[in-house]
Amino acid sequence: MKKNHKYIFVVGGVMSGVGKGIASSSIGKILQSKGFKVNPIKVDPYLNVDAGNMNPIEHGEVFVLDSGLETDQDMGNYERFLEMNLNSEDYMTSGSVYKHVIERERNLGYRGKCVEAIPHITEEILRRIKKAADEHQSDISLIEIGGTIGDYQNILFIEAARTLKIKHPQDVIFIMVSYLPIPGSLGEMKTRPTQNAVRQLNSYGVQPDIIIARGAQSLDYKRKEKIAMACAIAPENVISAPDIASIYDVPINFEKDKISSIILKIFHLRSKTNGNSLKYWKDFVHERAQAKKELQIAVVGKYFDTGDFVLSDAYVSVIEAIKFSSAWKGARTNLTWINSKEYETDPKKISELKDYDGIIVPGGFGESGVEGVIMAVEYARVNKIPYLGLCYGMQLAVIEFARNVIGWKDAHTSEINPKSSHVVIDIMPEQKKLLEEGRYGATMRLGAYPAILKKGTIAYGAYGEKNISERHRHRYEVNPEYIADVENAGMVFSGTSPDRRLMEIAELPKNIHPFFLGTQFHPEFKARPLHPHPLFTAFIDACLKNRQS
Ligand code: GLN
């Protein structure tokens, strides 16, 4: 690790869900723009070892790293904002830390000592933080501690941070992302909950250096002074963070309150760049705001009646991937979430899909709403509407093709109907064994795998190269028994694993359909604002052409 390595701990005050992850990502972006190498770490204080078994409708998307680790959606924000690939060391939960310490104890790793939360858990937390900094060879580590001050379960992480500060007072700072409510009856922003949150943090022996004041409105100087006075910090170190239209504006907004100079001053560091180093980022934000063309895209899946808010959390990477590629093409895309069950109960409703410029079927699991999705795939195929299938969306496209083009009427996936006479999507033997043993955690095909693309296909045209690597999260695959039949009927497997055993991309030739493509992997995990994903961009391009015609 570099000498005088710096650490920024970001903690939450008052309540969670106010954008701590975006705030941390934005701070990272700004520090990058000042020429520093930053590595973000997300700490989730729950006992789950990883996020793999968590329900995305309740907890948001499960984001998958190259390594295959299943993590919190904030890791996706970090990768997108900071344009970097993160490693397993960059994410930890209380569960993963405890598991490691307990296993070490079982293996006599503590040589007969009594193993205790303090210091053994806190030491393990710090070991991981340092290892992550080492791996990235970074200048500054940005560690976001999930939850809020006062949650019992994050106390050991705060304690670990505190001990680090005691040892390296010049190298550690604390930022509290707080929330300032505006009660409807009063109509004014209240600072007291923030003051109390700081007091609670103080009771752990930690004083924040900077407070990010989230709220519906900007914070006026009077209130900055009030917080400053009550919390013993300079008013300039209270950053106003009002709600804004796009999360990608947040770094620009923080800089209005000069957050980077404040951080660099505390650390006694100097910017390594000069001028407008956030330029490309600003250009992207500007282009997005200026986009003139409009697109309507339907996202068809099994959705519960949870409202758009939760759905947008469950599919955040897909939504962002669409945003980036749309901005790249000068377009603004409206996504409509369609519950596929509606097509099962009212088949005529399917014709509403003619009003969309493109159709996406995202990843999913289980039986619910699947027949409705297959109807939507058929509609897209027959009516030549651009179609992008992501993981389940690819598998269901193969099933639709097997049923309606080849004529295997009961073709299915063994996830739903293992007794079908044509199980065109089937489980791999390795996975079957794990499931029989009742083991679910981290038992899918997870993380980055290489694939080889076939020349002359849509996929090859989009990527512009033969060798790719994409991230996976699924148990089932195209059944090797049926590959030849499906290809003979006209579907092209344009991407395969290097040994050609696993089908990675399925598409229809361009002379049959303008854009019909499904991926066994999740391309959305690798889409970045300044580097949109080529398949999403090709899809948006096809949607734009479809709209014009
Ligand atoms: N349910 C399918 C599988 O496990 C697809 C998973 C997904 O879409 N992520 O293979």
From TrEMBL:
The lineage of its organism: Bacteria, Candidatus Zambryskiibacteriota. This is CTP synthase. Residues 311-541 form the Glutamine amidotransferase domain. GO terms for molecular function: ATP binding; CTP synthase activity; identical protein binding; metal ion binding. InterPro entries: Class_I_gatase-like, CTP_synthase, CTP_synthase_N, GATASE, GATase1_CTP_Synthase, P-loop_NTPase. It comes from Candidatus Zambryskibacteria bacterium RIFCSPLOWO2_12_FULL_39_16. It catalyses: UTP + L-glutamine + ATP + H2O = CTP + L-glutamate + ADP + phosphate + 2 H(+). Its EC number is 6.3.4.2. Pfam families: CTP_synth_N (PF06418), GATase (PF00117). GO terms for biological process: 'de novo' CTP biosynthetic process; pyrimidine nucleobase biosynthetic process. The keyword Nucleotide-binding applies. Pathway: Pyrimidine metabolism; CTP biosynthesis via de novo pathway; CTP from UDP: step 2/2. GO terms for cellular component: cytoophidium. Belongs to the CTP synthase family. Keywords: ATP-binding, Glutamine amidotransferase, Ligase, Magnesium, Metal-binding, Nucleotide-binding, Pyrimidine biosynthesis. Residues 6-269 form the CTP synthase N-terminal domain.
